[in-house]
């Protein structure tokens, strides 16, 4: 029998073995030179933890509340597209993994299972991620379907007016299937002479004119709280609050959009300072270890979203793999908390980490 994976990187290797190259490249890849892709992970290694000793850590409580929903840990599943390319059960398996671990799942607008299938598969708290199509009637319908099916929030992804240039997908001539949510509404199968039909799909369907004033439109069609995903600057954090969002997700889309955008962990604090506690700030990008989650919490995130790591679990072992990856990250976070002298997520403070910039200033 093959050895059991002991960390997320080993799950990635299992996913590589399980998937056709075209899909593995789609899931792992980033934009252009993949500079930001590497940085998202490496920037974590430049942040050092300042552990405190002789604290009673015999009981650790990782639970927290996200937009009023109690969860077992400050961990959510990031919305990622087309899970059936990773495993035949698709997003239903992912949702069940989330439910088993008592964490919130973000469902992608570009899912391969329908909103209804995911909603009826388990009792996970679900947030619905949306893109805005030029055909606003279709987007409004999707939001209503999410609302009707008990989703707890809308995640508006704001960093994708056009799709980033993912060169592996271009070379592989990556093909997206017809997405079941849109059957009878719009075709999601576009053939492109540029290579990747996902790029063509986004070019034809996504509304590149989307801007801040459209949050008013979104608020007019839903009562659900809105999280805005893709904030990387204090300027946009302030605009998001002015627009009345319920939360902000610091994200560079897993480095798949603008290459040479900053590593998300390097700008989290800028956003947190701008927000001044008015709304919760969430974080994603490059999280592969419990220590990464601890660092993001110390720098002010309310919770982190996990993208690729969950897909690796799904590709390797379906629902069981999703569960194992989340459990692994939860266990690692718990151990990090214990070894740093933190009994609850509230105990994790800014003084528990030191950034590269601070170390540099100390040396001067
Ligand atoms: C294969 C893949 C598909 C993605 N699809 C979506 C999507 O449909 N909607 C979205 O808002 N973000 C999407 N993302 C971005 C994730 O929500 C998240 O920001 C990113 O994966 C976090 O980085 P990580 O993968 O390093 O954890 C996708 C990311 C990946 C890797
Ligand atoms: C189908 C794509 C638009 C999904 C996506 O956001 C991504 O691949 O990063």
Automatic annotation (TrEMBL):
Matching InterPro entries: Aldolase_TIM (IPR013785), Alpha-hydoxy_acid_DH_FMN (IPR012133), FMN-dep_DH (IPR000262), FMN_HAD (IPR037396), FMN_hydac_DH_AS (IPR008259)
EC number(s) stated in the UniProt entry for this protein: 1.1.3.15
Pfam families linked: FMN_dh
Signal peptide per UniProt: none
Cofactors demanded by this protein: FMN
Domain FMN hydroxy acid dehydrogenase, residue spans: 1-358
Enzyme class: oxidoreductase
Main localization of the protein described in the UniProt heading: other
Oxidoreductase in keyword set: yes
Keyword list, A-Z: Oxidoreductase, Peroxisome
Location of this chain's protein in the cell: Peroxisome
Matching SUPFAM superfamilies: FMN-linked oxidoreductases (SSF51395)
Recorded family membership: Belongs to the FMN-dependent alpha-hydroxy acid dehydrogenase family.
Name by which UniProt lists this protein: (S)-2-hydroxy-acid oxidase
High-level lineage: Eukaryota, Viridiplantae, Streptophyta, Embryophyta, Tracheophyta
């Amino acid at each position: 029998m093959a050895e059991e994976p002991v960390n997320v990187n080993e799950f990635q290797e299992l996913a590589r073995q399980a998937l056709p190259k075209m899909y593995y490249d789609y899931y792992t890849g980033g934009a252009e030179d993949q500079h930001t892709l590497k940085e998202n992970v490496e920037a974590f290694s430049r942040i050092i933890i300042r552990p405190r000793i002789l604290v009673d850590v015999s009981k650790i409580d990782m639970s927290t509340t996200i937009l009023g929903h109690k969860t077992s840990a400050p961990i959510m599943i990031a919305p990622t597209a087309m899970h059936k390319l990773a495993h035949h059960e698709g997003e239903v398996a992912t949702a069940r993994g989330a439910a088993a671990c008592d964490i919130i799942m973000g469902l992608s607008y570009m899912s391969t299972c329908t909103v209804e299938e995911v909603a009826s598969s388990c009792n996970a708290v679900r947030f619905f991620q949306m893109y805005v199509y030029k055909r606003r009637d279709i987007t409004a319908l999707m939001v209503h379907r999410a609302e009707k099916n008990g989703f707890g929030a809308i995640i508006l992804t704001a960093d994708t007016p056009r799709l980033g240039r993912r060169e592996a997908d271009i070379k592989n001539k990556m093909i997206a299937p017809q997405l079941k949510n849109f059957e009878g509404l719009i075709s999601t199968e576009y053939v492109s002479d540029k290579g990747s039909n996902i790029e063509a799909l986004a070019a034809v369907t996504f509304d590149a004119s989307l801007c801040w004033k459209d949050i008013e439109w979104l608020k007019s069609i839903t009562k659900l709280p809105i999280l805005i995903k893709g904030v990387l600057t204090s300027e946009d954090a302030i605009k998001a609050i002015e627009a009345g969002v319920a939360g902000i997700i610091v994200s560079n889309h897993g480095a798949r959009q603008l290459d040479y955008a900053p590593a998300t962990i390097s700008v989290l604090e800028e956003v947190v300072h701008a927000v001044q506690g008015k709304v919760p700030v969430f974080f994603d990008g490059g999280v592969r270890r419990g220590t990464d989650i601890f660092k993001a919490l110390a720098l002010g995130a309310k919770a982190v979203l996990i993208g690729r790591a969950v897909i690796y679990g799904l590709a390797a072992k379906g629902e069981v793999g999703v569960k194992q990856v989340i459990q692994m990250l939860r266990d690692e976070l718990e151990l990090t908390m214990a070894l740093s002298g933190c009994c609850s997520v509230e105990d994790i403070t800014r003084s528990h980490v030191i950034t590269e910039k601070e170390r540099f200033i100390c040396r001067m």
